[in-house]
Amino acid sequence: MISRLIQAFHSVNSNVCLNRRYETSVWMSTRIFLKAPP
Protein backbone atom coordinates (compact mmCIF):
# COMPACT_ATOMS: atom_id res chain seq x y z
CA MET A 1 0.00 0.00 0.00
CA ILE A 2 2.64 2.52 1.06
CA SER A 3 4.95 1.50 -1.77
CA ARG A 4 2.09 2.04 -4.23
CA LEU A 5 1.55 5.54 -2.83
CA ILE A 6 5.25 6.32 -3.17
CA GLN A 7 5.22 5.03 -6.74
CA ALA A 8 2.26 7.26 -7.61
CA PHE A 9 3.96 10.24 -5.96
CA HIS A 10 7.15 9.67 -7.98
CA SER A 11 5.24 9.38 -11.26
CA VAL A 12 3.36 12.62 -10.52
CA ASN A 13 6.66 14.28 -9.59
CA SER A 14 8.31 13.29 -12.87
CA ASN A 15 5.24 14.43 -14.83
CA VAL A 16 5.37 17.83 -13.12
CA CYS A 17 9.08 18.13 -13.91
CA LEU A 18 8.46 17.25 -17.57
CA ASN A 19 5.61 19.77 -17.82
CA ARG A 20 7.75 22.47 -16.25
CA ARG A 21 10.59 21.75 -18.67
CA TYR A 22 8.16 21.88 -21.61
CA GLU A 23 6.68 25.16 -20.39
CA THR A 24 10.11 26.75 -19.99
CA SER A 25 11.19 25.65 -23.47
CA VAL A 26 7.99 27.07 -24.98
CA TRP A 27 8.47 30.29 -23.00
CA MET A 28 12.08 30.62 -24.15
CA SER A 29 11.20 30.03 -27.81
CA THR A 30 8.37 32.57 -27.52
CA ARG A 31 10.75 35.15 -26.05
CA ILE A 32 13.29 34.50 -28.82
CA PHE A 33 10.53 34.82 -31.41
CA LEU A 34 9.32 38.11 -29.88
CA LYS A 35 12.88 39.47 -29.70
CA ALA A 36 13.52 38.65 -33.36
CA PRO A 37 12.91 41.64 -35.65
CA PRO A 38 9.87 41.33 -37.97
Structure report:
By secondary structure, this protein is mainly alpha-helical. Helices cover 89% and strands 0% of the residues. The chain contains 1 helix and no strands. The protein has one helix at 2-35.
Mean of pLDDT: 87
Provide the succession of SSEs.
Answer: H
| Alpha-beta content class | mainly alpha
Indicate the radius of gyration in whole angstroms.
17 Å
Oligomer, anyone?
single chain
Strand content: under 5%
Uncertain segments: none
- Beta strand count: 0
Query: What level of helicity do the residues show?
Result: over 70%
Helix count equals: 1
Query: Whole-Å distance between the termini?
Result: 57 Å
Give the biggest sheet.
Answer: none
Overall outline: rod-shaped
Q: In terms of topology, how is this protein built?
A:
Layout (H helix, E strand, L loop, with lengths): L1 H34 L3
Give a short synopsis of this structure:
This protein has one helix and no strands. The chain is mainly alpha-helical. The termini are far apart.
Keywords:
single chain; 38 residues; mainly alpha; 1 helix; 89% helix
